[in-house]
């Protein structure tokens, strides 16, 4: 998939579906070839996996040696916050199933993470779960690696254009982007207004998942950009031109816009960010340097303690949340299934062109954040007023427990949607 997209010709969900169908046709052809090979190699006891009606499943990739290793690698961006908690959850579940876990933290350094993942491959890990620091850099690095005996699972962040990634688990980022855009459409009253509003976009360019959030948002906003109800004065209208790699770069880019594009006093009505790492940076920069009479609407996604605090302070308008503990539990289950040569669970609805288990994100605003974030136990408010991730006991799940967790996730999402509608 290319990494630069004009909003005038956005890649729609239908286009993504077309890519998925093409991938499925390729997969079907591969399975037919595999079945033909199985017939000729029947003496060696090679068989194909069964499929269940109504359940989206997939066989392990050709060359993956089930049970040839009891070693599972987990690579996380840093040993802090959610990443440490989720790594501990996965490690506990896998160790309870008699796997040895090789756990590494990359200190938010992409080069360090790449070396750690390569070391895991050298150690013959049967499966590797990796939450990438820089998904594009990881994709390039994996393209040169032999992963034929390892099931590679991208965790939380999609690794784009990477044939060595077997599965993805995380949220539906396309829907995430649509949540933001629809909120801005509603709050700015774009469907009925005769006015024109100024918008700027900050896209996390080194994240494959953020790219889908960008696409989802632009598909919603395109009609308003076409008729100039929404205007992007900076002309930063593609994933490439509005892309920044981190919070520091986002602050620098916004500072430049305020000194140039908006120096004449024109209002900045809204800012859309494809991750809360960026929305926090943008809000902080605006608080320091923005001289407009009305603080812009800021949308983000994948909330963190800092963005929640900004939401409570009225500086962030909307974000989204994912139940990271449930994702961690499902990731461990997927690794176990792959290691045993079983069919690996996938979601029926999948916007990506790689087999995936995806969760729907939940919108978070000032009206529902207490119910969605605190009453659910995902976050906690400390005595000093700060926000932090709530501590979780690492569960040891049976096969049925993960199925129940998936059902509970849907109930939570449905309840939150109903609450959101009422508010």
Task: Tell the overall outline.
Answer: globular
Total beta-strand segments: 17
Strand order, biggest sheet?
3-2-4-5-6-14
Individual helix count: 12
User: Mind summarizing the main beta sheet?
Assistant: 6 strands, parallel
**SSE order:** HEEHEHEHEEHEHEEHEHEHEHEEEHEEH
Query: N- to C-terminal separation?
Result: 39 Å
Radius of gyration: 22 Å
Percentage of residues assigned to helices: 40-55%
User: Overall mean pLDDT score?
Assistant: 81
Strand content: 15-25%
Structural class: alpha/beta
Q: Extract low-pLDDT stretches.
A: 1-63, 394-402
Q: Mind explaining what this structure looks like?
A:
The protein is an alpha/beta fold and 423 residues long. The protein has helices at 13-40, 81-96, 110-122, 135-142, 173-188, 208-226, 247-259, 276-289, 305-312, 324-339, 369-374, 399-422; strands at residues 57-58, 71-76, 100-105, 127-130, 151-155, 167-171, 197-204, 230-231, 243-244, 270-273, 297-299, 319-321, 344-345, 356-359, 362-364, 379-381, 387-389. The strands form 5 sheets. It has a 6-stranded parallel beta sheet, with helices on both faces. Helix 6 (208-226) links the parallel strand 7 and strand 8 (230-231). Helix 10 runs antiparallel to helix 12 (399-422). Residues 1-63 and 394-402 have low confidence and may be disordered.
Topology diagram in text:
Elements: H1 13-40, E1 57-58, E2 71-76, H2 81-96, E3 100-105, H3 110-122, E4 127-130, H4 135-142, E5 151-155, E6 167-171, H5 173-188, E7 197-204, H6 208-226, E8 230-231, E9 243-244, H7 247-259, E10 270-273, H8 276-289, E11 297-299, H9 305-312, E12 319-321, H10 324-339, E13 344-345, E14 356-359, E15 362-364, H11 369-374, E16 379-381, E17 387-389, H12 399-422
Parallel strand pairs: 2-3, 2-4, 4-5, 5-6, 6-14, 7-8, 7-9, 7-10, 10-11
Antiparallel strand pairs: 1-13, 12-15, 16-17
Helix pairs in contact: 2-10, 3-4, 5-6, 7-8, 10-12
């Amino acid at each position: 998939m290319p990494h630069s997209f004009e909003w005038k010709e956005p890649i729609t969900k239908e286009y993504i579906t077309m890519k998925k169908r093409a991938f499925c046709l390729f997969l079907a052809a591969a399975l037919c070839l595999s079945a033909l090979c199985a017939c000729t190699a029947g003496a060696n006891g090679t068989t194909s996996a069964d499929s269940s009606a109504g359940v989206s499943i997939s066989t392990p990739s050709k060359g993956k040696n089930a049970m040839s290793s009891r070693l599972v690698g987990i690579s996380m961006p840093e040993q802090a916050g959610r990443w440490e908690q989720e790594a501990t959850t996965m490690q506990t579940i896998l160790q309870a199933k008699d796997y040895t876990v090789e756990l590494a933290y990359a200190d938010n350094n992409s080069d360090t993470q790449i070396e750690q993942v390569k070391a895991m491959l050298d150690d013959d890990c049967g499966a590797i779960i990796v939450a990438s620091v820089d998904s594009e850099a990881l994709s390039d690095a994996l393209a040169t690696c032999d992963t034929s005996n390892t099931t590679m699972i991208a965790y939380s962040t999609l690794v784009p254009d990477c044939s060595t990634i077997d599965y993805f688990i995380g949220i539906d980022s396309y829907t995430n982007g649509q949540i933001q855009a629809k909120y801005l459409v509603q709050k700015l009253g774009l469907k009925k207004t005769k006015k024109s509003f100024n918008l700027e976009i900050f896209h996390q360019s080194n994240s494959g998942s953020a790219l889908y959030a960008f696409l989802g948002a632009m598909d919603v906003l395109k009609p308003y950009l076409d008729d100039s109800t929404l205007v992007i004065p900076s002309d930063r209208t593609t994933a490439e031109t509005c892309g920044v790699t981190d919070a520091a770069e986002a602050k620098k880019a916004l500072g430049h816009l305020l000194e140039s594009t908006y120096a004449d006093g024109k209002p900045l009505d809204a800012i859309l960010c494809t991750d809360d790492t960026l929305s926090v940076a943008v809000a902080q920069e605006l608080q320091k340097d923005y001289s407009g009479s009305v603080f812009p609407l800021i949308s983000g996604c994948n909330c963190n303690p800092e963005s929640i605090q900004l939401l409570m302070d009225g500086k962030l308008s909307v974000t989204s949340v994912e139940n990271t503990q449930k994702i961690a539990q499902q990731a461990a289950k997927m690794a176990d299934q792959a290691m045993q040569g079983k069919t690996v669970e996938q979601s029926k609805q999948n916007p990506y062109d790689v087999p995936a288990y995806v969760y729907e994100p939940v919108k978070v605003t000032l009206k529902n954040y207490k119910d969605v974030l605190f009453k659910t136990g995902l976050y906690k408010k400390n005595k000093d007023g700060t926000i932090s991730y709530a501590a979780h006991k690492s569960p040891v799940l049976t096969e049925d427990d993960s199925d129940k967790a998936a059902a509970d996730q849907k109930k939570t999402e449905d309840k939150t949607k109903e609450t959101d509608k009422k508010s």
